[in-house]
Amino acid sequence: MVALRFPPFSLLVFSPKTVISSSSSSLAFFRRARRPSPSRFQLCFSSLSTQSEQQSRQEVGKDDGGTLPKEGVITPRSQDFNMWYLDVIYNAELADYGPVRGTMVIRPYGYAMWEAIQDYLNVKFKETGHSNMYFPQLIPYSFIEKEAAHVEGFSPELALVTIGGGKELEEKLVVRPTSETIVNHMFTQWIHSYRDLPLMVNQWANVTRWEMRTRPFVRTLEFLWQEGHTAHATEIEAEKEALQMIDIYTKFAYEEAAMPVITGRKSRLETFAGASRTYTIEAMMGDRKALQAGTSHNLGQNFSHAFGTQFMDENGQRQYVSQTSWAISTRFIGGIIMTHGDDAGLMLPPRIAPIQVIIVPIWKKSDEKAGVLSAATHVEEALKSAGVKVKVDSSEQKTPGWKFNFWEMKGVPLRIEIGPRDVSNGSVVVSRRDIPGKQGKVFGISMEPSTLVPYIRDRLQDVQASLLERAITFRDSNIVDVSSYDELKAAIAEGRWARGPWSASDAEELRIKEETGATIRCFPFEQPEGLKTCFMTGNPANEVAIFAKSY
Amino acid sequence: MVALRFPPFSLLVFSPKTVISSSSSSLAFFRRARRPSPSRFQLCFSSLSTQSEQQSRQEVGKDDGGTLPKEGVITPRSQDFNMWYLDVIYNAELADYGPVRGTMVIRPYGYAMWEAIQDYLNVKFKETGHSNMYFPQLIPYSFIEKEAAHVEGFSPELALVTIGGGKELEEKLVVRPTSETIVNHMFTQWIHSYRDLPLMVNQWANVTRWEMRTRPFVRTLEFLWQEGHTAHATEIEAEKEALQMIDIYTKFAYEEAAMPVITGRKSRLETFAGASRTYTIEAMMGDRKALQAGTSHNLGQNFSHAFGTQFMDENGQRQYVSQTSWAISTRFIGGIIMTHGDDAGLMLPPRIAPIQVIIVPIWKKSDEKAGVLSAATHVEEALKSAGVKVKVDSSEQKTPGWKFNFWEMKGVPLRIEIGPRDVSNGSVVVSRRDIPGKQGKVFGISMEPSTLVPYIRDRLQDVQASLLERAITFRDSNIVDVSSYDELKAAIAEGRWARGPWSASDAEELRIKEETGATIRCFPFEQPEGLKTCFMTGNPANEVAIFAKSY
Question: Which of A318, A435, B206, B233 is the most exposed place for a label (fewest CB within 10 A)?
Fold first, then answer.
């Protein structure tokens, strides 16, 4: 396969007919295009330190496998998944590299995906009784040390402020890597009686973790997330809350992001630093690596003991609160890209897409222009007032063929083409992003809003459903049930996920990680019936676990 | 005047009639209440460093004038404005102090005000062609040094990360105090041709400035804001954009926050570090000090020269872009509190209020309870489905009288009371927060949604309008036109604002600041007609300036 390239503006203008047929053979078509010169996107995400452009060019590819995203070029996914991923992010203008190693600028198109995630989750969080608020990001270093597992987990990746207002600080301050400690410090002051419980809050914030190996969206030095924090009178309530929130994440993944995650419990080794139990949603990416896309922790009384977070119960007894925390981050955007994208670029589920419908007006002669543009505007207005996210690309510097491919690369679910003949017929042509070429193209849909609007709505639902279905099929065909370590090794070597009964030790879990690179992603909530035998030890097992390599 | 105190839960329960009359004499009523013990809110906002609770108790009042907010106590505004402000913030649960000196936790009720601000501005920003995005908060120290005025303005208040992942960093990193430098670093990479302009983005983010004297909302070590950044082909376009954005802020202040700000241009001394011109909205607080509530900067080509941000114009010539930046922060919440609040506590404009209508069901006998609660729920549902932000306070631990005062203190614009007699009459009692006692109370409003919903909507509009009108009257009665320095000194000594023709030097402006504590808040856009003579020098003057003490 050859890299897909976008043609420069100067390429010939097509008649509507040529354009319509060209999209079905876009790869062949673009082979003729001039390869653009390498762009300045050669700034490597994982070079060693703060860098100028020059430095970065020397360090290119250090961690990301020698990848050099190029303007107008999408490396085929099948050829180099990692490079494809970076090409898509660059060309679809989702993100760019910040000047400090491992930081990322989220560009408007990528940020709009984050806003779609926020809009959905914010409503769900409020419906379930949570309030938004904001905790400071600077945390006294001593706080981090209070919970033993927590400090062990986080201390290697802390960013520390040591100078403020020109002076050396007496105590180093941690730039928030997560907020359990400061939350507990405040909860201890706010919670007095059982009447103050449950206390259920959430914040949308940035967090900083000094990661050594970074990757846009998936693992960055700073990222955006929401972190929910709750305190309850009993362990049972905390457990119920942790399960409720992982359920909200699961529904979000399926229904909005069309990502068929597997929901389950983390192994002890993979549990959050400071939690009693961690629930997770694990998504299969296009390269079949797992992505932990969201977690919900039952913190038990670990932090409440460390911070003395107590309440007076109905009998006048002092009790420690039981707590949860749960988070989804901008990493989810990486998950959406790697679940649905294809060789042509991004493919977005309509419920996440910043633009759901792109309208491409097509004209050849100048006397056709006014009619075509006016029709495009009418269609745009009709869809917009029906709540569809729609945009008209009427720029004259680019050919319709260029636009078709550009908006496909940007993952827009539906395209409406309107040419002079369509205008005289009062109809439009509608193409689906998820079905390439002629198969995904329907001619002669009436422009009349009473017909067009429900038609577009139905097609958006179709695309949403088809993306999910496709991802389920892909996932299920890549999970292998194993009943021996050898079978597991074979499955992992093939790049697939292995599912098998497990009751072995932490040490054996670590051995698998060392020998195969795979970890327990989760003990899925959906468990097969019947007696099970641990594939590692031959002992009885209560549950199957899923093993996979992961991001 | 005596401090208003909230009674403990245990106070007697009133009959509906008693309750209704009690609110008109709440001050007298509360004199009888037990004074609650000092709360743990004695954490001082401006103590010296990271602190434990004990430390902070010793340092209490160090910077905030010895203020000790107490649970259930609102110091009268007329007695001690500063203490009143802190009491309101604590008792209305708007914010709390973070563990690090000068940091603030924004609690749900305060954060909901921020969300109202965000919801309004986000729509306006997008309508005017701006996209949200996100820039990293860690900025190489060298960036800050590139623009001479900028580094001079910001270097004293920087927080620096010097350790990351356990290692000393080669280059110190600045925790974003504002983003012009990193924005320009990225703009330089994204902008090539005139076709890439204008580039208009915004981000909602946290910023950190190592302030020595802090005050909740008004000046904190870390705060939340939006910062808009735009690049244009010409200075004229940049100027137009800067003016457009200060106009959006002005409309927001008047129409949403009911704050009659005075909009104008900053003096050269007060211009943003790195800007060519700064526009500002200046609000008069209840103590008649000025609050700079939002700014919009025409950055000219200062940052584009420092960062080499150039584009190829239509003639193939390389040109520097002209830029703007503009911001509103959580400081605005402090402005709302200090504009409208009174001795009873917060008073919120309906368009900002997290709760616009509080419903207090009132019953005495247990056989009345079900009917009253059911009516309250019906009214709640009717208002909720009409888009009114409404809450029922049906808790049984507190008396109706306590609730009346509590929700007045929280600034809820309207209260609906429903007692057994109201239920049998099919009517409710509606009270306005802005008109105390019987005057603000209307009996016998039908519960029927077709009557009640429009009635409530109209009253919310009335409260909104009345708050603005009252603030305008207050403002205008506290601005003095001066024609000599002596008149200015007299006005400032009285705590008022002085307005007078000004064409004197920076040195004379500084002298006024030293001698009176007042600074030029702005040269207002609205200027009197006719010839003017500088009150300081006797020279001709083009404009009047407004002088005031400020936060």
Answer: A318
Residue B253 DSSP label:
I
- What's the complex ipTM? 0.89
Residue in chain A nearest B186 by alpha carbon: A98
Among chain B residues, CA nearest to A107: B133
Alpha-carbon dihedral sign for residues A208, A210, A214, A219: negative
Nearest CA in chain B to A224: B134
**Contact between A222 and B137 using a beta-carbon 8 Å cutoff:** yes
CB contact under 8 A, A138 and B222: yes
Whole-Å CA distances, B3 to B31, B76, B84: 8, 6, 10
Task: Among B48, B93, B133, pick the best mutation site for testing chain A contact (most A Cβ within 10 A).
Answer: B133
Q: Mention every residue, 6+ apart, whose C-beta is less than 8 A from residue A528.
A: A544
Instruction: Give CA–CA dist A457/B426, Å, rounded.
Output: 44
| Number of cross-chain residue pairs from A and B with Cβ atoms under 8 Å apart | 186
Tallying the residues shown for chain B, one arrives at 551
Q: How many CB atoms lie within 10 A of CB B115?
A: 15
Total H helices, total E strands in chain B: 17, 27
Strand B441-446 relative to strand B427-432: parallel, antiparallel, unpaired?
antiparallel
Q: Which residues contact B362 (CB under 8 A, 6 or more apart)?
A: B16, B19, B372, B400, B417, B418, B419, B420
Check CB contact under 8 Å for B99 and A185: yes
Q: Model's pTM, two decimal places?
A: 0.89
Distance from CA of B497 to the nearest CA of A (A): 32
CA nearest to B426, candidates B441, B447, B442, B443? B447
Distance between CA B356 and CA B457 in Å, rounded? 10
Contacts of B156 in chain A (CB under 8 A): 165-166
* Contact present, B45 and B97 (Cβ < 8 Å): yes
CB contact under 8 A, B169 and A49: yes
Q: Which residues of B touch A182 (CB under 8 A)?
A: 98-99
- Cβ distance A212 to B173 less than 8 Å, yes or no, reads no
- Among residues B413, B181, B406, the alpha carbon closest in space to that of B305 is found at B181
Please report where in the chains the tokens 């709760």 appear, as a residue: B355
Show residues of chain B in contact with A135, CB under 8 Å: 98, 105
The residue of chain A nearest to residue B96, with distances taken between CA atoms, is: A186
Per-residue pLDDT of chain B (551 residues), as tens digits, is 344 444 333 333 333 333 333 333 333 333 233 333 333 333 334 333 333 333 333 333 334 434 445 667 899 999 999 999 999 999 999 999 999 999 999 999 999 999 999 999 999 999 999 999 999 999 999 999 888 788 888 888 999 999 999 999 999 999 999 999 999 999 999 999 999 999 999 999 999 999 989 999 999 999 999 999 999 999 999 999 999 999 999 999 999 999 999 999 999 999 998 999 999 999 999 999 999 999 999 999 999 999 999 999 999 999 999 999 999 999 999 999 999 999 999 999 999 999 999 999 999 999 999 999 999 999 999 999 999 999 999 999 899 999 999 999 999 999 999 999 999 999 999 999 999 999 999 999 999 999 999 999 999 999 999 999 999 999 999 999 999 999 999 999 999 999 999 999 999 999 999 999 999 999 999 999 999 999 999 999 999 999 999 99
Alpha carbons B418 and B439: distance in angstroms, whole number: 18
Q: Work out the number of other CB atoms within 10 angstroms of the CB of residue A17.
A: 12
Chain B CB contacts of A138 below 8 Å: 98, 100, 103, 159, 208, 221-222
Q: Which of B107, B171, B211 sits opposite A133 (nearest CB)?
A: B107
Chain B residues with CB-CB distance to A208 below 8 A: 137-138
Q: Which spans in A128-179 are helix H? A: 141-144, 148-154
